[in-house]
Design brief:
Number of strands of chain A: 9
Distance between the termini of chain A: 32 Å
CATH architecture of chain B: Alpha-Beta Complex
Largest sheet of chain B: 2 strands, antiparallel
Helix content of chain A: 25-40%
Organism (chain A): Desulfofustis glycolicus DSM 9705
CATH topology of chain B: Cytochrome C3
Number of domains of chain A: 2
Strand order of the largest sheet of chain B: 1-2
Cofactor (chain A): [4Fe-4S] cluster
Strand content of chain A: 5-15%
Main location (chain A): other
CATH topology of the largest domain in chain A: Alpha-Beta Plaits
GO molecular function, one term (chain A): metal ion binding
Helix content of chain B: 40-55%
Number of helices of chain B: 8
Largest sheet of chain A: 3 strands, mixed
CATH class of the largest domain in chain A: Alpha Beta
Radius of gyration of chain A: 29 Å
GO cellular component, one term (chain A): cell envelope
Strand content of chain B: 5-15%
Oligomer: heterodimer
Largest interface: A-B, 25 and 19 residues
Chain lengths: 316, 153
């Protein structure tokens, strides 16, 4: 057992490599978790107490993004009624944003909420996409590249807000449809998205996310009776570029309060960190075990054979 | 075409006349600089809004819309924490403080300064709608879009 690969040396090296890998992946993981979004990235603060449900944002989005005309006009209030399944509207391949109406016991008038992509700081759609069709730009937008999309629709399942929609009418040229923060036409030029510019009551405020958080907290602090003490999107899904102030508890106006407070990728990071370790260390480890085991067997066999030989020679 | 315009012209003259008479009848009320304002700073997006300043001065204190700039004590307690009566400004025009382009790059940069207090001044469009609508709702004034705006073609 004094060959170049003794059992003791093998185990020692193996253990050292194992520990090094563990430490390495742990350090990497911690660094990634601390990502708090790009510096000076933009966002939108939505103040639900200001929204009057005029749907100007929907009309502006439709025009800016060249989407097909709506089934009924943007001044038709019948869209606020729930569908046959009792569900409010959702963004789809014909509308990147929709405004829904909510009746609650907390207010004597209907409340409105605009829905669109929240442009997460660490987007689940992006992490789920295996062809990298999604990009989180330093400006804050989560954009999508139809040229590389294979139409697997994993992003639709990954998104905690159920935002990406699939253009089923062009299934052979797969295309995900979602709000892109007017990235190419406006955001890169420092302009607010079309919906923000159209909002008559400035229920939508455009700016740097950090500033928007300060504005949101300031509004809550100065008018505590007007707002609930929560900025939705500050921590939800690890933080989103779009933030929401509300006068009633957020779940009363359709917000999902069960969305985790950390990025969705955190839930798979631990598992994903093991994959390269398994792929690189396990083959070497088990090959080593096999070699050792078969070598011992061979030694026993050789010893056995030599003993038999010596028996035979003494017998003679 | 010409014939139709011929019919329209006297009608418009009459309308202008009526507006003129109504305006003239209000002269003498304590408002400055004019009693009838055309709110046209956002004219590229909406038709100008004819605003009867004298009528509104009968309903509301100056501070309801002008905050502290006319020299009255601000009615909003948040403003009153710093601004007091006599704290008038050089200009009382809405657009002096409420920018037409509230999300211009330089304004966003200014707001990023964490020592700045006024980081939440709404734009002109937002200021009009928030201030006008909230009061109109409270006292039963008109709240329909075309009550103030000409309907867009």
């Amino acid at each position: 057992m004094n060959g170049p690969l003794s059992r003791r040396n093998f185990l020692r090296t193996g253990l050292a490599t194992f520990c090094a890998t563990l430490i390495g992946t742990h350090a990497e993981k911690t660094a990634a978790r601390d990502f708090e979004g790009y510096h000076q990235s933009k966002g939108v603060l939505v103040d639900l107490t200001r929204c009057i449900g005029c749907r100007s944002c929907e009309a502006a989005c439709n025009k800016e993004q060249g989407l097909p005309p709506p089934e009924t006009g943007f001044d038709d209030p019948s869209v606020f009624q729930l569908d046959e399944h009792g569900q409010p509207r959702r963004p789809d391949d014909r509308a990147y944003t929709v405004v829904n109406r909510y009746e609650t016991e907390f207010a004597d008038h209907p409340l409105f909420r605009k829905i669109q992509c929240n442009h997460c700081l660490e987007p689940a759609c992006l992490t789920a996409c295996f062809v990298n069709a999604y990009t989180k730009t330093p400006e804050g937008a989560v954009i999508y590249d139809a040229d590389v999309c294979v139409g697997c629709r994993t992003c639709m399942i990954a998104c905690p807000f159920s935002i990406p929609a699939f253009k089923y009418s062009s299934a052979f040229e797969p295309r995900i449809m979602k709000c892109i923060f007017c990235y190419d036409t406006r955001l890169v030029n420092g302009l607010p998205p079309a919906c923000v510019e159209a909002c008559p009551t400035e229920a939508l405020t455009f700016g740097e996310r950090e500033t928007l958080l300060r504005i949101g907290r300031k509004r809550i602090r100065e008018r505590p009776n007007r707002y609930v003490d929560h900025v939705y999107g500050e921590h939800e899904a690890g933080g989103t570029a779009w933030l929401y102030l509300s006068g009633v508890p957020h779940d009363e106006v359709g917000f999902d309060m069960d969305v985790p407070k950390q990025p969705i990728i955190t839930y798979v990071k631990d598992f994903l960190a093991i994959v390269p370790m398994v792929l690189t260390i396990w083959p070497a480890l088990f090959a080593g075990f096999h070699l050792l085991a078969s070598r011992e067997q061979k030694t026993i066999e050789t010893n056995h054979a030599s003993q038999e030989d010596s028996h035979e020679s003494t017998g003679q | 075409m010409n014939k139709r315009h011929d019919h329209l012209f006297p009608g418009m003259l009459m309308l202008l006349g009526i507006v003129f008479i109504l305006t003239a009848a209000r002269t003498g009320s304590a408002t400055d600089p004019s009693d009838y304002l055309d709110l046209d700073r956002l004219g590229d997006r909406y038709g100008e809004v004819a605003f009867d300043h004298a009528l509104h001065a009968d309903y509301a204190a100056c501070s309801e819309c002008h905050h502290h700039t006319t020299g009255e004590a601000p009615s909003d307690p948040v403003c009153a924490a710093c601004h007091q009566a006599g704290d008038e400004a050089e200009s009382v025009s809405c657009a002096t403080c409420h920018p037409v382009q509230p999300f211009a790059v330089e304004l966003i940069e200014q707001k990023a300064n964490s020592t700045r207090y006024h980081i939440d001044i709404v734009g002109l469009q937002g200021a009009y709608h928030l201030n006008c609508l909230s009061c109109h709702e409270a006292i039963g004034g008109p709240t329909g879009c075309t009550d103030c705006h000409q309907s867009q073609p």
